[in-house]
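Hi there,

I know you've been waiting on this one. I reran it after we fixed the sequence typo, so this is the corrected version. Both the input and the resulting structure follow.
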Amino acid sequence: MATYDVVLKGGRVLDPAQGIDAMLDIGTKHGRIAAVAENLPTADAWLVLDVADHFVTPGLIDLHTHIYWGGTDLGVLPDQTCLPAGVTTAVDAGSAGWANFTGFRHFVIGQSRTRAFAFVNISSIGITDMRVGENLNLAYCGVEDAIKAVEANRDVALGVKVRVAEKICGPNGLEPLRRAAEVRDATNTRMMVHISDCEQPVAEILAHLKPGDIITHCFTGRGQLILDQQRGTVLPEVRAAQQSGITFDVGHGQGSFSFAVARAALADGFLPDTLSTDLHNYSSHYTARSLPDVMSKFLFLGRDIPDVVARTTRNPAAAIGRADSLGHLRVGGTADITALRLVSGPYHMMDAEEEKFTNDRYLAASYTLRAGEVYNQAGRAARRWYGPRTEEG
């Protein structure tokens, strides 16, 4: 019997959860990490991946996606969009509400190789049609039914999602947020709050949040910002909220990331806790093409590779309460692994305000291992075989 199923050979292993930054090999066996060490033997490995000149990281975690394909106009297929980009775990941000969560769970979460979690939308219909705000009719925002949906799906439902914006809530203002907070408290979970295009001051929204909750679209350029717009500095209420344990997530998307806001916040010493795409049908081929694309934008903004890896592995795992099982490369853990390469050459980037820049480098995923199965940039699983073979064999 082979010592290892797969050996990733010669890469720079970055595991912020364990404080590892070293040239090491990784061996997998039966879908789990069997060894992380120098010079692992490869003679009888089923598959050897030459990852020299790569950064080998825990499988990337995208904290904000919309993967209810066929159930909403936002939905993308997770295996076709996440696995080729190095993402092994995708968190759906409220695509489904209590009325359609069962379908989402069965037809998408249950059928995907990509590990998927979800926030249940406070609105029963979820984000069915981007042209119609799901919280315009409070009859959809049933607290008891949302509680039941979270409780019935504890293994995949992380908590409750609410979008707070005038075009989504209309005259109902912050009432959907208050109801979502009731669900959070009753289920002892967490709440994710969308703030892009919001008319209410951020401080009013933060008053309803608790440690463990998540603000997504923190660098939006639309509506009320996390910045004092006179001084261009981060609001003290925002700093206090982050220090108290509230997660600030990027959630780039089609309309929720501004280079100008991000640059001002970073210059003022405010870092997002997590980087995410808000991956959906309108953003995935336009403004936020993948999680490595968002990571590359933060390289352009001055962050380094270990930093952006931490904000796409260790930090999101902690944000969803899965730091014990995800976001690390511990021996014995599930073999969710990403091999990223830093590519030189012109890389064109655009934010949600259509501000464009070109950088001279970017990150791209070469291989993704999800529970030991190898996927390449095309999203295709590698064939396994017996006997000593190489990547080219």
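Quick highlight: Residues 6-58+331-348+356-375 form a domain with the Urease, subunit C; domain 1 fold (CATH 2.30.40.10).

Best,
R. S.
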